Amino acid sequence: MTVSRVSGWDLHCHTVFSDGTKTPTELIELAHAAGLEGVAISDHDTIAGWQEAKAAAQAKHFPLIRGTEITAEHLHTSVHILAYLYDCEDKGVLDMYAKMRQRRYERAQRMVERLSHDFPITWQSVSEQVREGEATTIGRPHIADALVSAGVYKTRSDAFAGAINGKSPYYVPVDSLAATQVIFALKQAGGVVVLAHCGAVKRNRRRMLTDDDIELFAREYGLDGLEVYHRENSREQQERLSAIAQKLGLLQTGGSDWHGEGKPNVLGENRTDTSTVQEIIRRGRIRLIN
Ligand SMILES: [Zn+2]
Ligand SMILES: [Zn+2]
User: Fold this and answer.
1) CA distance 271 to 35
2) What element of type H or E holds 194?
3) Distance 69 CA to ligand 2 centre (A)
4) Is there a contact between 147 and 159 (Cβ–Cβ < 8 Å)?
5) H or E segment at 277?
6) What is the tens place of the pLDDT at every residue in 202-225?
7) With 90 as the cut, is the pLDDT of residue 115 above it?
8) What are the Polymerase/histidinol phosphatase N-terminal domain coordinates in residue numbering (predicted)?
């Protein structure tokens, strides 16, 4: 089958190894069918999907960048950090992941405990929603799915709008690691580090990352780039981020934040150009799969 190529790569994709609905193999197949030049896997806070994605990419000879989207915080602002092509066996990275898993696990347990007073769910019923067993980070999507399967809500989105919403009394925030600490660890491990959707107003109504915050990450911690092209960055924010990137000499990336059927985002709806991807590959410590 010949597929006509559309220019660019989608560098922001989630699979069942975090809160997406498709497997890494399906990601590779769909990215290939969509005619993308290549794709990055970037599940939340895990590398658990890398192995399957690598095997699928090699089988199809489809270019794959292995990455992760890590949740962190800076001055009470939530910061999502995309890291590509880093050494996942680096000691600092392993320690960082162990700390994060523990915090997320405890938070999910506290939320389920609160919810169980008013809804027919248990830790057991939430655990049953995890698609790939131990490898997945249990989080709000799984609690949402447990509420759906208990008949409380029709869809995962309804649950996100209801009891597990950030404003709900059942909500428990996760204590994220400091963004500076996360960027430092990933840079030490040879990663190429990009701030995801940092112009998304809805995600941080109280405080967004300022130009100075971004400058600090770039000058003191070695931040490589900004995800300028993302559906949640408004046109004005894209212009702002692009100007900051030019001023600081940062890479400008784009990604769909695809979650399969879990969200309306379409694979490849935002992309990163070929020359930027080549620079990412040049900087990264581990190799491109193709
Ligand atoms: Zn994100
Ligand atoms: Zn994402």
Assistant:
1) 12
2) strand 192-195
3) 6
4) yes
5) helix 274-283
6) 898 889 999 999 999 999 999 999
7) yes
8) 9-74
90, with CB counted inside 10 A (0-12, 13-18, 19+), is middle
DSSP state string for 19-79: T-SS-HHHHHHHHHHTT-SEEEEEEET--TTHHHHHHHHHHHT--EEEEEEEEEEETTEEE
Q: What residues pack around ion ligand 2 (CB closer than 5 A)? A: 69, 257
Cα of 1 from ligand 2 centre, angstroms:
30
- Candidates 235, 282, 220, 230; CA nearest to 252 is 230
Q: How far is the CA of 65 from the centre of ligand 1 (A)?
A: 17
> Do residues 256 and 239 touch, judged by C-beta distance below 8 A?
no
Give the span between the Cα atoms of 14 and 137, in whole angstroms.
13
User: How close is the Cα of 12 to the center of ligand 1, in Å?
Assistant: 9
The alpha carbon dihedral of 113, 46, 13, 32 has a sign of negative
Residue among 100, 57, 81 nearest 287 (CA): 57
The pLDDT confidence band at residue 90, using thresholds 50, 70 and 90, is very high
Closest to 143 (Cα-Cα) out of 180, 181, 101, 171: 171
Expressed in angstroms and rounded, the spacing between residue 46 Cα and the centre of ligand 1 is 13
Tell me, in angstroms, the distance from the centre of ligand 2 to residue 14's CA: 6
Distance 117 CA to ligand 1 centre (A): 30
**DSSP character at residue 133:** G
Kindly list the structural domains of the chain, giving each domain's residue range(s) and its CATH number in brackets, ordered by start. 9-97+176-283 (3.20.20.140), 105-161 (1.10.150.650)
**Tokens linked to 116:** 């169980």
